[in-house]
């Protein structure tokens, strides 16, 4: 087939192939003797990247010329994964390129697989940022992502003797063909030093921040193409480098080697992503990273503003808005004040009015231990001017509160941005709330709990600031690209409108009653399961059968996510097999994957337990094909793209009230998995959309968890439940750690503790019963397929196109910009 690619740009197929060949042989200097697919991947990516550049410049210039209102998504994490397939999909050239590569004797899949993941994030929050910027581009919204260009992304996970071993992820080793360095937009970032104040000619207090040790922030831009719409937005990531004079000073003193070595201090700032998905408190390097992101991004936006409007900021808030991805970049509130006051000469009230109309804050967690606090002494040392400004913001804010509630000193203490105690701390969430015009949670339950619990006082003060934006995922990557067979069936059935309006999946609903359609749906699901088996065969010699339930839990390993509850269920199934209690058995293959924060002791123990249980079960001839347990090492974006099409059952089993939203739950649903889940985060909304009859609900509600935690007695629960008692006894007698005595004692103690905040024992019975309903349902394959179709059909709400449309209509208020190009 001769498929023409974008002839207007001189991008016909023959030109494309010529470009590919030229890059391969002349740019990269390879020939037919080169066996590594990596260079073919690079040459192909360069040829494709060329096809984005015209649109990118056009988009950039259109935003500038129209002087439209713009939004900036500030995030310490952008978990982008791979770029190649996504770029081809959004340009609409997937099939043409595949054919062209095939004609050259190249296997597309091999090229795609040789791209490293851009793992610049921990999990949900980072991947959400990536899905958001995809949807912004597709919705033609003028939104720029600002983040950090970590030299090392999320560590890669090896499992050795059942334990997690972290390996650094040097993802940039072979270069990155998708980024463009733009040294012309470098900004200077100050650290340390001291401040000095004086009164200016108008009687205003003015402050200088001096004797600082500066570093430079250099931007690297990645194109973010919309879905076949001509828009190409920008993800701008900052790299820290040393300043010129930083070296020179030392050089003049004769310490050449010292001065070159000192460069490291500066460049270390963006060296590595912090691999904790909860707060790692108090690390100075982390605060430096956060300030670098905030300051460089704000200077970038303000610099371009001043270029167009001079020092007139009267329209700044009407034309610019910053969305803060959790508190990680929330020092931007104080930095915007500093830039407006100290650099651009505004007075306090004007600067504060602008700041408060410009910043918006998204919260992603209710866990109190995950809330960011910085010690005032560290803050002062690293960022003295910022600390002063935060104290001033707090003084003004405290005056506001006491005007509203005169004499309520306890309220002042509770709401203060500065927490008093042995040592003073800055409460970053409060700084974000006070400095923002919008505060949102990421699912309905989560937003409600924020208002009634964590941020109750603030909600009482400013009810209109608070709102909910239920998360989503981009259907381009998480359905169209990762599951092309299912996507093709959907398009053949209801047309291709669903790609940009996922609510159209509703049109699949009647086809759940269509026998032929169901047969095809089932074939595709089984095919995806087989592919998953083949993919896993590389690493495991476990033989799992395609007719078993594929029961999947992939996410960061955390006690609140309760991978432990999942393992207890697996041990219970094993125990049933050993006791011969296998009437009406349904074969099951349990897949668990996820990384533990390197310093999280219990999470690492849980990984070890999963692997030990897996070894015992998978090698027991009594068990055979009835049950398998597999730990999937190094779970990451590109692994999820292979996993989610092949899942039958999605495990979303967090303790109610603890998972803010979850987004893996949405990817699985879109790909036709059924959910077994608690009433937590977005699970509640998933169940609402699909109906209780197509969802396996279990467990305590958030209120019941709260209530029970006051008189929780796990030992009584264990003793009253034969099945649980046997599971606990198997663990206690060391059945899964025959040669490693005592290694699971702490896990056992946590289950039995009346202070176990995750209430694993409390939900065991209800979980086991729900799993029984799963088994019964899976026996009726045809009915299961119906439910699978209905899950996909009901997943329309969980597109980030919907989420971003809500952010835009209720918070940002941007107008879509048509990039009028004929290509
Ligand atoms: C903070 C300080 C120092 C070092 C690390 C951190 C840090 C880094 C990442 C704290 C938290 C995170 C990530 C949190 C996260 O991913 N939260 C998840 O966000 C998803 C998107 O909204 C939700 O769906 C999940 O429920 C939530 O757990």
Helices and strands, with pairings:
Elements: H1 13-27, H2 37-66, E1 70-74, E2 78-81, H3 84-91, H4 94-103, H5 108-113, E3 118-120, H6 124-138, E4 143-148, E5 153-160, E6 163-169, E7 180-181, E8 187-191, E9 194-199, E10 205-210, E11 213-225, E12 232-242, H7 244-252, H8 256-267, H9 284-309, H10 316-319, E13 320-325, H11 332-343, H12 348-358, E14 359-362, E15 373-375, H13 376-382, H14 384-404, H15 409-415, E16 418-419, E17 425-427, H16 428-434, E18 436-441, H17 444-454, H18 456-461, E19 466-468, H19 475-481, H20 484-494, H21 515-537, E20 549-554, H22 563-578, E21 588-593, H23 601-618, E22 627-632, H24 637-643, E23 649-652, H25 664-670, E24 674-677, H26 683-690, E25 696-697, H27 702-708, H28 714-720, H29 722-732, H30 745-752, H31 760-779, H32 781-793, H33 800-812
Parallel strand pairs: 1-4, 1-13, 4-12, 13-14, 14-18, 18-19, 20-21, 20-23, 21-22, 23-24, 24-25
Antiparallel strand pairs: 2-3, 5-6, 7-11, 8-11, 9-10, 11-12, 15-17, 16-17
Helix pairs in contact: 1-2, 2-3, 3-19, 6-33, 7-8, 9-11, 11-12, 11-14, 13-14, 21-32, 22-23, 22-29, 22-31, 28-29
The chain binds ligand 26Q.
What characteristics describe this protein?
alpha/beta; 25 strands; binds ligand 26Q; 823 residues; ten-stranded mixed beta sheet
Strand content: 15-25%
Low-confidence stretches: none
Tally of contiguous helical segments: 33
Bound molecules: ligand 26Q
Supply the helix-strand structural class. Answer: alpha/beta
Question: Percent helix among the residues?
Answer: 40-55%
Name the overall outline.
Answer: globular
What integer is the average pLDDT? Answer: 95
| Alpha-carbon distance between the two ends | 21 Å
Radius of gyration: 28 Å
Q: Tell me the major beta sheet.
A: 10 strands, mixed
InterPro entries: Glycg_phsphrylas, Glyco_trans_35, Pyridoxal_P_attach_site
Protein name: Alpha-1,4 glucan phosphorylase
EC number: 2.4.1.1
Catalytic activity: [(1->4)-alpha-D-glucosyl](n) + phosphate = [(1->4)-alpha-D-glucosyl](n-1) + alpha-D-glucose 1-phosphate
